[in-house]
Amino acid sequence: MRYAGVFMAVDFRLYLITDRKVATKPLPEAVRLALEGGVRAVQLREKDLPVRELLALAMELRSITREYGAKLFINDRVDVAVSVDADGVHLGHRSIPVDAARKIVGTSMLIGVSTHDLMEAKAAEAGGADFITFGPIFETPSKVNLVNAVGINAIRMVNSGIKIPIFALGGIKSGSVSKIIASGAHGISMISAIFGADDIRNAAEVLVQEIAGAGRGMP
Q1: Catalytic residue (choose from 45, 71, 77, 102)
Q2: pLDDT tens readout for residues 13-46
Q3: pLDDT for position 219
Q4: What whole-number distance in Å separates Cα of residue 9 and Cα of residue 76?
């Protein structure tokens, strides 16, 4: 099995990224509803919050995710991740390098890395990342004028060049999941498709079921 030993650690398929400005409920409530809908991995990504507010929010989400047996990742701030005993940290191109983060957290945390092309994906894997997010697959408001959409076919190219799990992200909605999984993505990463929904719990349930159905038969 190509991913034997890796999937044992990255045991989730839907990777939910927070954005309190998009969420239709206060963020702690929105996260709880998503977890009730079956989400089992949440990345706290609120870059504009002062560190003390971020830490307080991280502590609250750590408590909530533990109730549901879900993983909590902290975007960028390795110090906050360590402080709240998060399950992992997620790094961007301006974050601390992957190998440096690994020296801090050791093997006690998963490390995810944001990537946009094969070169970045290979560098993340070489640095010791456990998984990557890759995209944006489709046009998305969060990346307007920042990064061009890469399309579904780009997933196949990246998948052929690395061995760690890929989470596709960017403009993904219900209906496109099966094609994305068939292209080699281990899972899907989302923000607005769940947090922006009027019924967050139901939106999460639908997507969790769709991902599970699309992934049947994968190694």
Answers
A1: 45
A2: 999 999 999 999 999 999 999 999 999 999 999 9
A3: 42
A4: 20
Catalytic residue flag (residue 52): no
Q: Which of 25, 122, 143, 179 is catalytic?
A: 143
- What is the DSSP annotation of 129-144? -SEEEE--SS--GGGT
Q: ∠ at Cα 188 (35, 193), nearest 5°?
A: 65
User: Apex CA 99: angle with CA 63 and CA 112, to 5°?
Assistant: 45
CB 13 within 8 A of CB 168: no
pTM of the model: 0.92
Q: Is 20 a catalytic residue?
A: no
- Please state the rounded mean pLDDT for residues 143-157: 81
Annotated active-site residue in 114, 183, 189, 192:
114
Question: Is 2:34 a contact under the CB 8 Å cutoff?
Answer: no
Are 80 and 52 in contact by the 8 Å Cβ rule? The answer is: no
For the record, the structure tokens of 42 come out as 């949440």
**Mean pLDDT computed over every residue of the chain:** 92
Quick: pLDDT tens for 85-142.
Answer: 999 999 998 999 999 999 999 998 999 999 999 999 999 999 999 999 999 999 876 5
Residue type, 34: A
H helices within the chain, ranges in order?
27-36, 51-67, 78-83, 98-105, 118-127, 153-161, 177-182, 192-195, 200-215
- Give the residue from 169, 160, 174 showing the smallest Cα distance to 19: 169
Active site residue 114: yes
Whether the CA torsion 115, 117, 119, 122 is positive or negative: it is: positive
